[in-house]
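User: Here's a structure from my thesis project, written as structure tokens. My advisor, Dr. K., wants to see whether a designed sequence matches the one we expressed. Can you design one independently, without my sequence as a hint?
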């Protein structure tokens, strides 16, 4: 997620520099044909173009609202994961005790049980964030050259390390291999947690009512996982995305043919007052067309990059940063040494990953 107070105009220009060059050519060619080659018939009525622009603006607005809604829902889901993760660590420390044990165990073994349950939760979180960073066929952010530049600069952690590499410190060797063989690795880890809790209940290390509470938390975590997977695996409807993409380009191509005659008429009206300016005023259609084209295109492109909030763009939900913050909190709750607790992920170029 982008953390600067605002995007600088320079950033936006660099991000859309290829399109700006195209907009210049799209506006320049009709203007040259109209004014230099004297093809005065290259004109279209402004009213139908304005109607097309209105329809395109409504469609782009709908796309942006939908994209923002998906991103906001994703952020609420991961906010819920933060809360449930802290609750899990606190509950594990509080209820996995010798109070109702059939055969009390040493404090060291209790600590091992706490650590196993907390680290396995971190493994669940790791598997989930890796699943959210997997590429889907409809995720096309990196297909664009300038988008790829941004993605390479911020370096998503899930693309630097494999899931197996990140799971090994958190699970036993047997559990790690078992999880990696499963299709839904996050759900498999929740299943391991459930089996572990049942074993602790049978030994009396977890009171029956506390077991039900922890089982309820596992159910809530599965619910949050399912909601996150729903956003990841169900794209913004392609018919709206494709239609908006095509209509914006149609509008951009038509725009100069309506703008050029308008500026030509204005120039003619200036002949008496500003004769030196009147003959050149038609060329103002070029920057004017470019500005309008840039606004429509940029708004649509913002919607496109916001459609998939886990894709790894600068405006996505920063699940890597969130997961690291959760890990720090849970390890501290578990009383682990400060030297073993990782540092928060750095903000790179104003972006949380």
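Assistant: Designed independently from the structure alone:
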């Amino acid at each position: 997620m982008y953390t600067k107070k605002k995007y600088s105009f320079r950033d936006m220009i660099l991000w859309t520099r290829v399109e700006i060059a195209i907009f210049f050519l799209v506006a320049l060619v009709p203007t040259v044909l109209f004014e230099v080659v004297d093809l005065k018939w290259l004109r279209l009525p402004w009213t139908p173009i304005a109607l097309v622009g209105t329809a395109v603006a409504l469609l782009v607005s709908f796309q942006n609202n939908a994209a923002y809604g998906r991103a906001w829902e994703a952020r609420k889901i991961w906010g819920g994961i933060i809360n449930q993760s802290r609750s899990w660590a606190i509950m594990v420390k509080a209820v996995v005790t010798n109070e109702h044990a059939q055969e009390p165990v040493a404090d060291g073994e209790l600590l091992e049980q706490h650590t196993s349950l907390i680290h396995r939760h971190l493994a669940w979180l790791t598997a989930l964030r890796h699943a959210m960073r997997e590429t889907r066929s409809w995720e096309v952010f990196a297909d664009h050259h300038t988008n790829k530049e941004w993605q390479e600069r911020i370096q998503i952690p899930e693309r630097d390390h494999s899931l197996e590499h990140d799971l090994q410190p958190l699970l036993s060797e047997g559990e790690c291999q078992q999880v990696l063989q499963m299709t839904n690795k996050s759900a498999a880890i929740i299943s391991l947690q459930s089996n572990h809790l049942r074993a602790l209940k049978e030994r009396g290390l977890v009171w029956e009512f506390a077991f039900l509470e922890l089982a309820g938390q596992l159910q809530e975590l599965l619910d949050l996982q399912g909601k996150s997977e729903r956003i990841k695996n169900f794209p913004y409807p392609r018919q709206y995305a494709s239609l908006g993409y095509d209509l914006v380009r149609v509008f951009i191509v038509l725009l100069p043919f309506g703008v050029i005659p308008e500026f030509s008429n204005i120039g003619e009206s200036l002949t008496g007052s500003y004769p030196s300016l009147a003959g050149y005023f038609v060329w103002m259609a070029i920057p004017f067309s470019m500005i309008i084209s840039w606004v429509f295109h940029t708004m649509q492109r913002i919607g496109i990059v916001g459609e998939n909030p886990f894709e790894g763009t600068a405006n996505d939900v920063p699940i890597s940063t969130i997961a690291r913050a959760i890990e720090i909190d849970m390890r501290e709750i578990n009383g682990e040494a400060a030297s073993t607790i990782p540092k928060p992920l750095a903000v790179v170029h104003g972006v949380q990953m």
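When you compare it with your expressed construct, this may help: The first helix runs from residue 9 to 15.
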